[in-house]
Amino acid sequence: MNDRFAALANAATRALRAYDPGHDLPALRRRFGATLAELGSNENPLGPSPRALAAIETSLPQVYRYPDPQGGALKAALAEHLRVDLGQVALGNGSHELLMLIAQCFADAATSVVFSEFGFAVFPIATMAANARPIRVPALARDHATMPLGHDLDAMARAIRADTRIVYLANPNNPTGTWFDDSALAAFLARVPPTTLVVVDEAYHEFTSAPGLSSALRFAAAHPNLIVTRTFSKAYALAGLRVGYAVADSGVVAVIERLRESFNVNALALAAARAALGDQAHVAHGKQWNLGEREWLAQHLRARGLRVLSSQTNFVLVDFKRDAAPIERALFERGVIVRPMGGYGLSEFLRISVGSRVENERMLAALP
Ligand SMILES: Cc1ncc(COP(=O)(O)O)c(C=O)c1O
Questions:
Q1: What is the band of 22 on the pLDDT scale with cuts at 50, 70, 90?
Q2: Enclosing H/E stretch for 315
């Protein structure tokens, strides 16, 4: 490899490192076959709605055509489902793409971006890729009474400066599983100047059931600077297709549309996402199942003396109270994939997705 080219990268890219994909999952699938327990990426083991799979089959013969560049049918279905205008919806190749695009469109070297210390990993990457200045706000303490490691919204509001163009929040957050309720968000929004965009990443929204927690969308009309992102990767179980969406003021969407690649969501993904959206009974069933299975998992982990943080998602963050790297390694050797947290500075923790009961039992049995 010729390192000379690294110096030719633009300033923002020079400061970045390539995404660390973690373990080589295709190789591990070959090695462990059906006994591999994949609990590292917060996927939904129930799988997608049968309607989504049928829609893919129906669309398959048309794959020689480009997809609808507007994603019109999916956008219309989302607009109806969310009771917003069509012009308020942007589609992404996963919500990851939208989180990046928002920074590309609105932030630059003259601006800063605020996010929480343990906020979703894409927030600092999006900030740096836009060459903006990251303002990383310390999270709530590890021993905080109600929401350890959660977003400190009060400190985040105080961190906003005149040049802050974006604040990224995740509710609930990955990797902590923490959340804040509607009243806390309302108080936060009231403190944000209209020239600062507030992105609320609701990737796990469909799993939530905490009292007082609905969605940032209820504040959209009062706060045109609000952007809500969601995904079909989690509750809708379509991670492999890459579809996400953002809901925002139509003026914000119009800016995002300037930079969006015209065919960013493929034809099979558009069709499957629309069909999946139409099967809310499947989503409701998945939510109930996840609630029960997450509780079962947490109880069994707690019975081992481990500290399991409260979660509103389809994963739990587990505090081993010692370096968790050897534990992760031992699980890996037994074909159980979980997510190490060293990259976040949380090396005593592992993030464990709610898998199928068989996978969860395998993980518990493999714990050293
Ligand atoms: C909080 C959060 N936001 C966004 C994403 C990105 O999801 P996708 O790009 O699959 O929509 C994830 C994925 O794990 C996530 O955890």
A1: confident
A2: strand 315-319
